[in-house]
What does this fold into?
Amino acid sequence: MGFSQSFFAARFGLSERDLESYLSEALSAGGDYADLYFEYLATSSIGIDEGIVKSATEGVTLGVGIRVIVGERTGYAYSDDLSPEKIRKAARVAACIAKGPASVVRSGFEEAQAHNLYPMLRAPNEMGLEERVSLVKRADEAARAYDKRVFQVQATYADSLRNVLIATSEGRLSFDRQPMARMSVMALAREDRGSPQHGYAGGGGRVLLDYFLSDKTPEFFAREAARQAIVQLSAVDAPAGETTVVLGPGWPGILLHEAVGHGLEADFNRKGTSAFSGRVGQQVASPLCTVVDNGTIRHDAGGGRRGSLNVDDEGMPTQENVLIENGVLRGYLQDKLSSRLMKTSSTGSGRRESYQHIPMPRMTNTYMLAGQSDPEEIVRSVKKGLYCATFGGGQVDITSGNFVFSATESYLIEDGKLTSPVRGASLIGNGPEALKYVSMVGNDLKLDEGIGVCGKEGQSVPVGVGIPTVRIDKMTVGGTAA
Amino acid sequence: MSGAKLKEDLEQLAADTVERAIAGGATDAECTISEGEEFSVGVRLREVESLKEAGSRGAGIRVLVGQRAGSSYTSDLSPEGVAKMVGAALALARITGEDPHAGLPESADLGRIDGDLQLYDDAIARMSTEWKIEQATAAEKAALDFDPRVQNSEGASFDSHIGRRVFANSRGFVGSYRTSSCGLSVVPVAKDDSGMERDYWHTSSRMARGLESAELVGRRAAERAIRRLGARKVATQKVPVIFEPRTGRSLLGDLFGAVNGSAIYKDASFLAGKLGQKIGAETLTVVDDATLPGLFGTAPFDDEGVASRRTVVIDKGVLKSYLLNTYTGRKLGMKSTGSASRGITGNAGVGPGNFFLEAGSQTPEQLIANVRNGFYVTELIGGGGNTVTGDYSSGAAGLWIENGELTYPVSGITIAGNLKQMLMDVEQVGSDLEFRSSIAAPTIVIREMTISGE
It folds into this structure.
């Protein structure tokens, strides 16, 4: 597709000449670099609660963000009005960061290379509204049918289509249409008079609604949410203190996101504020660990993973970046600004929440490559410990390296066997240390279902994680049982 | 455009949008418009690192067609954009289900509180960019000058926001209010042979004069970062835990989740069905008050046009009230507490006004002096409370208390318990209540929690 057929050219009559003139305005007081990020985001969501479809919402936001970089300085402004005078005004505001003679904008654009990771697109609401209603109703029914102890179910289906156009003063022009769809189910269960327990499951990615008709059905997520709630009914208190931990495959990969991923984002390392700063080439994990961040992967059934992108939010193609190779720290996740200042190249990791936000180095899909061990053998090897099957969220202090993630479904391991389920508990570790205790890595790498949202400095972006079954010899578990 | 003219125009637009929805077949409708301008400057190692300035607008509509609801929003406030928005909401109301409890507030419940709530300060609109840069620079300088172990920083920032919220519904309510806020924060990094630690201090206010001085913000941030250096793990044990106001606020946030009417009607809270019962210690009195002038949780009316008020939620340990919007009130056979909250579209949820734990009489120093062996929490990381079960587990950092004094720094540990028991175990509450956000707490002493460490 050429620029003239792209969304913003067709819909708003933007021409390459317009883009050049806005970039010139942005660099009118000097500066090393400027870019424009046009965004048109259409969203829709529908929710069921107590068996009634209580909510349905659609909406549209559009705008342009304009950035000027001068050395380490960034000027930023945005406008939700795409009239030329408003865009020029925003460009002049962004230009205030620089104080000098105008810089010259390269004339003419080259269309950037991009992947082709998404399914053939239709607008999100081309699929009938009735089909959306049917998805959440099916989830509601399946969760209730799973077990009569399930007494509350909420299910949501949400999708969006984001059209972006990125133009840079270096003459790079990128456009992309990024779909996203997600289904989530929450179930509450209780015994006769006992207290309720909670279960949650969800998934999706850069896919369309039909993904939920053929690949991962509402019933799949509903049963999983109900199953988790039922498991919790017989849970015992989580242990307190250091123990051996086995992470199950898939979503427990959030460990990698918190323990190493954030600490390897280039902005923190450029500033020397990360526990991983200056440690490229050092052993930071067991030699069994190879961790990558890969923005180019798809679902088996087609369509992109939740963290995948044809181009990042600075117009660079995403790529596979090796973060840790056989335990040795290999590199950082770079965006435009940090890579300029660190005299290296962008790794396609510049992301932002919307046109109102300045891009930063971020993760895409972060996972550990499969190892050699049989997952059952890993569990059998543990005399006393904790097996974590599912997690809630996590958080990290990148400076001290301390990170926390919350286990929502886990089991005691006693004499090599999973026994009682345990109640939710936080696990805490230290980034550069925790993975040194990895003593077995399974051959069962699994990526999560596609529910991750990563927050950094107030900006949320969708991400994916993955991990095979992994044994960690020592971690602190925050339960209450002695 | 003058402020008064803009107010008039946006209120008119909200009322017209509601009318358009009714004309299109809605039996009821409510429209929210929000507009605002944001500014932020980041300074790092004495140089300006980023400058951001922009404004935006958005409108949202929720329609009811009988007992079915539909919602939509747009950032395009042109007549065409608004017409599309209304059309989308009406189309969606044809596919949602009949909900016998759906509907707008009764006309008698609509209203607003009068008088100057001190939510807007023109001095914030008039602040010069140079002055804001100076503030951030001075705060970071104070942190960097405080101690030679502070040589690095993630920077300081000054941000300001000016906004307006407009609401109209088909029961004749039209209202709007302006808000302003400004804030200054700094994140210094301290380093010594033991490693590297960061911390922050932040001040914010709806009034320009409400900010702490840049020097104080920088110094406090540096002090906090330095005192974390050399942090160690401690042994796994059960001890008294003291939450400073910054971390106590997070416990109040968990408590808010448990009295939120949306969780109560679903039986998804450990406090469901406990109204009138003793659920906490005598020391525990919790209030939600959206009428206190100048605070972040204050507004003349809630997000469905019900007048703001003060609600005693827990009185000396007895659960007195849940926090409710119109919908959750109807579900429970109760009245709204004026706690409706939403962005600009969708069914309203429940949000806090100023939700706080009433102060006690002792200073934090006195409370610490009473503890022989315990943990003083200055930072919570990850985790938190489970509203359904009350289970509580969070990563934590802070200082160990020995013989009534703060001693060495501690990190890499978790604290755990159950909120049901923790509420009963609130032994003491400090005198140091400050409203730094819409949820606020003074120092809180919990009799015993489990520390997981080595």
About this structure: Residues 240-478 of chain A form one domain. Chain A has two domains: 3-232, 240-478.
